[in-house]
TrEMBL record, chains A, B:
GO terms for molecular function: alpha-1,4-N-acetylgalactosaminyltransferase activity; glucuronyl-galactosyl-proteoglycan 4-alpha-N-acetylglucosaminyltransferase activity; metal ion binding. Its EC number is 2.4.1.223. This is Exostosin-like 2. InterPro entries: Glycosyltrans_GT2/GT47, GT64_dom, Nucleotide-diphossugar_trans.
Length: 330, 330
């Protein structure tokens, strides 16, 4: 008589069964939740902020880019460049950032000379700021942004190729103007171009920035830029300079990689001398380069470290301009 | 009297509790298993088979590569090349695949002229096969393999740079000799080099293969090659050719990307004429190129499709050989 059997009425059995299953279900949910949290972040997470990407993106907008050009005091050059750029393949739209405060935009004349291949939007600014071009413009519908200075002409071939390169490196700045920082024994950084030697770096050279005055980058970085610290904005406004250096810091910090990929241009021109305004770019100011070294050091303080990384990769188009450009001259 | 309470002896309660918990545990294991199977494959999964990677890998082996050179009938050239390659930075070991069947290896002489910077292992083969070099050699301790034909000299600068490029594209073949396939209206493919025009492809050229006779690739691909179909081996043995094309198919299929990344060499030389054996490479055979077109079409049948993808990216070292090599000549 070790065992005492007990017949239970159905309802009690039911209740117990119910409790049993509910416990199992709850445990399942907990486990599922835990494991889901453990999922490795997939590639797209490394993309710059993509929340801003319009849900309803036209097919064309997916394989296209938006040209953002900031202009100040040389409308004649702007119009010349607009005529060049409006015919570039894969161009979706042009956004002109109008820094000529109080001056009328040439929209009427532009329209009177239409039709034009793509829409051109003039964004009238209230203050002449270097960083106006880094706004998260609502008119922007493409993932890819091509940013160009208003005195620089890059050939359609170079742009078409560079865009195809950007599509393979969408989280980096893909452009035509490489620059670098140099560490010095004093711990102070210096900014420069290829003429600045890298002590201790053997054969060849390196770059750690690609300027955004002639480059493709992901539009998500424009939203990320809106969340930069006030100190960064203050630095750019104080110098009216360095917005491109700040973008390289942003991208390098975001990716943990070199911020830029340098594409060697076949045909890039500075048209500054073609303007009648007589105005020449800010980079002619005596203090321009010193300011940029100053900005690098300031940004290192703000970031509490140096996120920029060096690269020595230079990309050219296979078989262009000459069909055997890959043959060595031995 | 709707409720009938029943006191159960502890043992029965125990058994029921036991059954309850065991059920929960089993369910948990099932769920865990299921969810684990759902984990998205992380980047490393895209790496070629990495099971083979030695667990106990010396630090040096992680930032180093192994040179695999297959040799046939030109030992004088081999020794000249061994003297060149043994001094290359990051070289961990040299594996010589000895296809001179029945012929004594020059180990004695090699050792008598030591010491040498890195170990050289002679792998004596029993059959002279093109694909002997694609074995999963147990002496191989590095992730990176540098495979070189026994008549090709590439400068130390080119190799050091290309290795740094491979470290950024470890799942692709990073090398100095690009080739391509061409589709024809008949649906038959043709194999060729840059002199072969790509109909309908506008400016510039494209490549869809990087030959492994002067290239870096992941050692895991040598293990993957061991699992190729018999038809692939038969094709290579029948032609004594095309092992490099087969590797490009393997890598393209594995990655879904272009199989290769082309690095423009500054100094690459064919030393064939320097041999006293008078033996000249198989690629001089009249049928060589026709065979390779034949192989492409055969492999497309075996793969039931064309996995090769085109690329038009050419990588050079920034600032080398001339420190302003990135400046355009405008």
């Amino acid at each position: 008589r070790y065992f005492h059997f007990c017949k239970l009425p159905g309802r009690v059995k039911g209740i117990r069964l119910l409790r049993f299953t509910s416990v199992v279900i709850i445990v399942l949910l907990l486990v599922a939740g835990a494991l889901t949290a453990l999922l490795p972040s997939i590639k797209d997470d490394k993309m710059p902020n993509s929340r801003r990407e319009p849900k309803t993106q036209s097919q064309s907008a997916l394989d296209a880019f938006t040209l953002i050009m900031q202009t100040y005091n040389r409308t004649d050059l702007l119009l010349k460049l607009l005529n060049h750029y409006q015919a570039i393949p894969h161009l979706h739209k042009v956004i002109v950032v109008w820094n000529n405060i109080g001056e009328k935009i040439p929209e009427e004349m532009w329209n009177s000379l239409g039709p034009h291949p793509v829409p051109v939007v003039f964004k009238v600014q209230t203050v002449n700021r270097m960083r106006n071009r880094l706004q998260n413009f609502p008119e922007l519908e493409t993932k890819a942004v091509l940013m160009m200075d208003d005195d620089t002409l890059v050939s359609a071939h170079d742009l078409t190729f560079a865009f195809s390169v950007w599509q393979q490196f969408p989280e980096q700045i893909v452009g035509f103007v490489p620059r670098k920082h140099i560490s010095t024994p004093s711990g102070v950084y210096s900014y420069g171009s290829f003429e600045l030697q890298s002590p201790g770096f053997g054969n060849g050279d390196q770059y750690s920035m690609v300027l955004i005055g002639a480059a493709f980058f992901h539009s998500g970085y424009l939203e990320d830029f809106q969340r930069q610290s006030e100190a960064v904005y203050a630095l750019i406004d104080e110098t009216q300079n360095c917005d491109d250096i700040a973008m390289n810091f942003l991208v390098a910090k975001h990716t943990g990689k070199p911020s830029g990929v340098f594409v060697k241009p076949v045909d890039i021109r500075n048209l500054e001398k073609d303007t009648n305004s007589g105005y020449s770019g800010m980079w002619h100011r005596a203090e321009h380069l010193l300011q940029r070294s100053y900005c690098v050091n300031k940004l290192v303080n703000i970031y509490d470290g140096m996120p920029l990384k060096y690269s020595n990769i230079m990309i050219s188009q296979f078989g262009f301009p000459n069909y055997a450009n890959h043959k060595n001259k031995m």
